[in-house]
Amino acid sequence: MPKLSIYDITQPELFRLICAYTAIRDPAIRTEFLTTLEAWAQDQWVRGG
User: Fewer Cβ within 10 Å of end Cβ, the chain: N or C?
Assistant: First the structure.
């Protein structure tokens, strides 16, 4: 399956992340979820994908 970006995320994986995010109702947990994803993405960028 083709990858979407340098982060090596497939379309089904991206769909699951979006579904997980939209299922979270607590704003604090949503913020934590996005912060975790951002940290992971930055780590992937630094490592070169």
Answer: N
